Amino acid sequence: MIEIKDIVKSFGDNDVLKGISCELRQGETNLIIGGSGTGKSVLLKCTIGLVRPDSGSILYNGRSFYQSDKEGQQAIRREMGVLFQGGALFDSQTVHQNVQFPLDMLTSMPPDEKNDRVAFCLQRVGLENTGKLMPSEISGGMKKRVAIARAIVMNPKYLFCDEPNSGLDPLTGVKIDELIREITDEYKITTVVITHDMNSVMEIGDNVIFLYKGRKLWEGDNNAILHTDVKELKEFIFANKLLREMRD
Ligand SMILES: Nc1ncnc2c1ncn2[C@@H]1O[C@H](COP(=O)(O)OP(=O)(O)OP(=O)(O)O)[C@@H](O)[C@H]1O
């Protein structure tokens, strides 16, 4: 579990996060949703240690990242897998090399063990026998799968996904959501997904946190969200035509 407590972050006179607290639960897909510019990415960057909050604390299974020494921070970082927006694969490396990259950077695992681990992760995301291909030879959905395989290769306790569906057709997007959900459940990971996508909210929203202008306005699951009384959340949800028609 990750406990976010009263996080405040400003850039100059732009107060981006105005005191956000929430719990990101283990074995669940925790979705951070909200309109553009509401602070979702900044909150994610604070949570993965890329942006230091002005105040507040973030605890990873009880351990404070920002109050840990360098070694403690590295230990927590090693437990994080990150799926960056767009996948961020290295174009000049094969699928296998891309997935192996964190093992090369962060472990002294013997080569055979690395190969086995990479093969296992590729198989887990449904991409066995693709290791020799280059990223340019595979589809957008397959690239996301490779990026997921890379994010889980270190066996993370925490998985962060920034807009995992961006650039994918709806059906492929649903399959990626399902994969993230399955992996979360199977390995009991604390998964955090940033999204604008109401399909994802309805499919995998175990714990949904709605941000609006740097504050948390609502928190609940995907069953409760359609019955919200919060005006700003209703506007966000029912901007989606299909959901509006379902409601009416
Ligand atoms: N490094 C930075 N320096 C200055 N301002 C920043 C920085 N990073 C983010 N901001 C500002 O923080 C605010 C929130 O940005 P953020 O990227 O978190 O929004 P978001 O909710 O993720 O939006 P989107 O859905 O469009 O990605 C914006 O006003 C942005 O300009």
Tell me what you see in this structure.
The chain has helices at 40-47, 70-78, 95-106, 111-124, 140-152, 170-187, 198-204, 231-237, 241-247; strands at residues 2-11, 14-24, 29-33, 55-60, 63-64, 80-83, 158-162, 190-195, 207-212, 215-220. Helix 3 packs parallel to helix 5, helix 4 (111-124) crosses helix 5 and helix 6 (170-187) runs parallel beside helix 7 (198-204). The chain is of the alpha/beta class and 248 residues long. The mean pLDDT is 90. It is built from 9 helices and 10 strands. Strands 6-7-8-3-9-10 form a 6-stranded mixed β-sheet, sandwiched between helices. The chain has one domain (2-245): P-loop containing nucleotide triphosphate hydrolases (Rossmann fold, 3-Layer(aba) Sandwich). The structure holds adenosine-5'-triphosphate. Adenosine-5'-triphosphate is lined by residues 11, 14, 16, 34, 36-42. Keywords: ATP-binding, Nucleotide-binding, Transport. Pfam families: ABC_tran. InterPro entries: AAA+_ATPase, ABC_transporter-like_ATP-bd, ABC_transporter-like_CS, P-loop_NTPase.
Q: How is the secondary structure organized here?
A:
Blueprint: E1 2-11, E2 14-24, E3 29-33, H1 40-47, E4 55-60, E5 63-64, H2 70-78, E6 80-83, H3 95-106, H4 111-124, H5 140-152, E7 158-162, H6 170-187, E8 190-195, H7 198-204, E9 207-212, E10 215-220, H8 231-237, H9 241-247
Parallel strand pairs: 3-8, 3-9, 6-7, 7-8
Antiparallel strand pairs: 1-2, 1-4, 4-5, 9-10
Helix pairs in contact: 3-4, 3-5, 4-5, 5-6, 6-7
The structure holds adenosine-5'-triphosphate.
